[in-house]
Amino acid sequence: MTFAIAVLLILGTLLYVLGIRRKDLPPPIPISPTQHLEERKAAIYENLRDLQFEYRVGKLSDEDYQRTKAGLQKELAGVLGEIDRIRKEKPEAIAAAAAAPAVGKRLRGSICPHCGAEFDKIMKFCGECGKAIEG
Amino acid sequence: MQRWKVSLLLLAVTVLSLAQNGQQFVTPEIKRVGQKLACLCRSCKNTVADCPMLECHYAKPAREVIAAKQAQGVSDQAIINEFTKKEGLQALAVPPAEGFNVLAWVMPFAAIGVGLLAIWWFIRRFSARKAVPANDIDPALLDRYHDEIEKDLAKLE
Amino acid sequence: MENIGALSLLLAFCFSIYSVAASLVGKWKRKPFLVLSAERAVYAIWALVSVASGILVYALLTGDFRLAYVAAHSNKAMPNVYKFSAWWGGQEGSLLFWSFLLASYAAIVVWTNRKKFRDMMPYVVSVLMVTQAFFLMLITFIVPPFQVLAVGKGITDVGDGNGLNPLLQYWTMAIHPPMLYLGYVGFVVPFAFAFASLVTRQPGEAWIHETRRWTIITWAFQSSGILLGAGWAYAVLGWGGYWGWDPVENASLLPWITATAFLHSVMMQEKKGMMKVWNMVLISSTFFLCIFGTFLTRSGVLSSVHAFATSPIGNYFVAFLAAGIALTVYLILDRLDYLKSEAHLESVVSRESAFLFNNLILLASCFAVLWGTMFPLISEAVTGEKISVDAPFFNRVNVPIGLFLLFLTGVGPLIAWRRSSVESLKRAFLAPSIAGLALIVLLAVLGVRHPYALISFGLCLFVTVTVAMEFWKGARQIAAKSGQNLAAAMVELTHRNTRRYGGYLVHMGIVLMFIGFTGAAFNKDATLEVAPGQMFRLGAYEMKVTDLIKGQNDNYQWAYSHVEIFQNGSQIGVLKPERRMYLSPPQPTSEVAIRRRLNEDLYLNFANVTEDGKVVLQAYIFPLVSWIWIGYWVLLIGTLICLAPSKQKLSYARTQVVGITKKHATVES
User: Fold this and answer.
1) CA of A115 to nearest chain C CA: how many angstroms apart?
2) Contact check, Cβ <8 Å, C419/A68
3) Angle (nearest 5°) at CA C595 between C591 and C600
4) Which terminus in chain B has less CB density within 10 A, N or C?
5) Is residue C263 a part of any domain in this protein?
6) Are C663 and A128 within 8 A, CB to CB?
7) Cβ atoms within 10 Å, residue C445
8) Of C274, C353, C379, which is closest to B100 when you measure between CB atoms?
């Protein structure tokens, strides 16, 4: 009895760990080359929002507010410029990443495989170019 | 049978603990000296004055010794010296501030000092604009995105 | 059955090594098969360790006294809940418990990130599994939990086990170790992410959000574990202490302090991309301090009430620590360029500087506790003479540090990020400072003379006012815009930035705890022999022992006394302090009686009965101690709020986050 359970335990776990079929493999997730910049951008917008709020509740003097805001805007412009530059240089990587749903976000609806337009409803045919959308 | 034995044992233990009962009380005088002495019972980190265990095999006799010496008119320091003579330096609740043991007291505050120096260094290093790759961007670039940023900013709640 | 348990552990050990190898090879040779297989091994390990744990728990519950572990830590008379908690009551079982928690954490990490961080997950898995392999090695080869008792050649069993130490048969003791372990073990995960991000030179801050989240969860467990332990000590040990500066208590405090420092300084990294090296150092120290704490509890290098029996596993821990620290230090030094700061300090008067000081003070207290804990060893090694470093040392060093920290808790939120002009600081500090100073003067006039207590109460009010002002100002702003009432606006405010306002609540919890700690400056106590019918007095209470009742059940013998409590001549209650004598192991315990009130606790310990039938009572008055436990609940609620997602209206060109031109997209985040 004990022996049978032992054999079962060994074989079962081995089979589970080693028996990987091709379809079990997760599809590779392309990472947008601008993703970390987008994160940075979101962080700066968050900082700006925070700054605005603190200013409104009176925690900041006018001068502090203007100076800090100018600094943040400058940083933001730098990030935006960098994003645009990468976009121009590697449009194909961006497109690949855009076709796959971005990390942590779920797209509800359809993306046209032909022209790249996106819709918030499931569509059988693309509303932009009229071609069929599968799946 | 088993239960019977346990009861016997229990009886023995109870009798033992009853027999030991004696003076537990800590007068302010005993407390004054006891606070400077470590309880060496090895299961607490308290002083002789505030070891909470009744029948503590170290703190209780120690208190009795203190009371007896005080009755003889021995000074506080002399009582403490007698304890250190008998048990060594470990009889003291805190390490004496002499010799190597000064470090016990100095190091935590030295650490704060070192930390302050580190902060000073950090502030100096990172206050300078050149400390990091400058984000002095082209004013033209800023202009280009200025409107977009302002528009988005207005939408922020 | 025990053979299956041992086999499961051996298999799990093999799989953990396989998982490390498969992850790394799979990553380096770009073989997704291997990477996936390594992740499956993580689940398999969880299943195997669960099987082993299940078998041990089953043996404990059914009283299979052939097993040495069961015989040593359980007996027939114990209630089931304590039979279950005997799982972590001894060395072998608690290491198995460690391993089980680690396996569970690892499985959750792998599952929640199965579609994220694909490039760094192999390294995360490796770090988790190296740690797992270490613990599984200990329980497979060094201290196996499934050892059977044998006499001569035959397996034998004993009639009944030794039972769990009766002091531990108390409800918080059934929760305190798991909570603390959840904390200890959980800090492996942030470390694994930090380590993996270093190896892969992860761009961006996404991984740090993940790390921060795990740290908060783990921090909440660790806080709960520490405070449940304090609550247990207060209610069980019979002397009303909740913290004794015991080496093992200190060991649990150390990673908590460094994690607290990390949770603060990580904001600098998220907001500005600064302090990256420092955050790496903090998160690594937290992990290694956890391992160090586990080592202290088990190796017997320092004598402690909590320590398990001395065993040979100390050296393995030292080796693991040394190798781990060396590798981490090397990796950090090698990746300094990756950890380069992205921003500079705009002004010395800024939130950033406040965080620097906060980190300094937290680390200083961490160092002071570590130093005090280890100093007896160091001193003995150098001078050859034993010394004691007892509670007075820790109090003398840590009280001023703690008060300064409390001060910073109030100061930090008043200073704006990046820069704050002196003018706006003056405005912000005016009301809280006046309130704090006024309270100090008032208390001094009322006769409070204890200098630290005065400062502490003043600072508590100072911080409270700053936090209240933050909430009030923010809520007023929202109320003015949206027309909500102030209470609704406060909820809205918190919802909009859960991290900040949850954090303020955590600060309030800390303030309440400080109020409780400060109360200890006014403790009163008396030890008395009272005959039934006799009155005695402590503080504002008069007490009368009316009765002495005795009895016995399967587990213990008991005796308790009825004590009637009077205040200003009228009876306000009856307390029944109890003394128990457990049968196995024969050990006395106190079931203290506590009259808990917000202003002070009246605490009675039935210590003994004298030969002539008098009751020996230890009576204590602990002012304000309840605020510690209230503070804990506030802290916990604040932490949970921090974990809740913020409601954000980020309606700026969000489409760009996903990618190219989108005309009709809806993105859910």
Assistant:
1) 10
2) yes
3) 125
4) N
5) no
6) yes
7) 8
8) C379
Q: Is residue A42 less than 8 Å (CB to CB) from chain B? A: no
Q: Which residue of C246, C360, C648 is in closest CB contact with B112? A: C360
In a domain, C454, yes or no: no
In a domain, C303, yes or no: no
Instruction: Quote the number of domains for chain C.
Output: 2
Q: ipTM of this predicted complex?
A: 0.79
Closest CB to C371 among B88, B90, B108: B108
Q: Which of C9, C18, C23, C37 to mutate to test the interface with A (most CBs of A within 10 A)?
A: C37
Three-class secondary structure of residue A122 per DSSP: coil
Residue in C closest to B116 by C-alpha: C360
Partner residue opposite B141 with nearest CB, options A45, A49, A77? A77
C293-349 pLDDT per residue, tens: 888 877 766 665 555 555 678 888 999 999 999 999 999 999 988 888 877 787 888
**In which residue ranges of chain B is CATH 1.10.8.640 found?**
2-94
Total residue length of chain B? 157
What domain range is C540 assigned to?
Answer: 523-623
User: How do C556-567 and C667-668 pair as beta strands?
Assistant: unpaired
Which chain A residues touch C650 with a CB distance below 8 Å? 42, 45-46, 49
Helix (H, G, I), strand (E, B) or coil at C544: strand
Show Cβ contacts of residue C410 under 8 Å, excluding neighbours closer than 6 positions: C432, C459, C462, C463, C465, C466, C467
pLDDT tens sequence across C586-641: 777 788 899 999 999 999 988 878 888 888 888 899 999 999 999 999 999 999 99
pLDDT score of C438 more than 90? yes
Exposure string (b/e) for C322-337, b if CB count within 10 Å is 16 or more? eebbeebeeebeebee
Cβ neighbourhood burial of C143 (10 Å; 0-12, 13-18, 19+) = buried
Computed over its alpha carbons, how large is the radius of gyration of chain A? 25
CA A3 and chain centroid, separation: 50
Question: Which tokens in the block code for residue C520?
Answer: 């200890």
* Angle at the Cα of C267 from the Cα atoms of C264 and C272, rounded to 5 degrees: 145
- If you measure CA to CA, which chain C residue comes closest to B52? C239
The set of chains that have 3 or more CB pairs under 8 A with A is B, C
H/E stretch holding C184 reads helix C171-186
Model pLDDT for residues C15-46, shown as the tens digit of each residue: 999 999 999 999 999 888 899 999 999 999 99
Q: Which of C113, C148, C164 is the last residue of a domain?
A: C164
- Average pLDDT of the segment spanning C341-358: 85
CA end-to-end span of chain A, whole Å? 50
Q: How far apart are CA C393 and CA C397, in angstroms?
A: 6
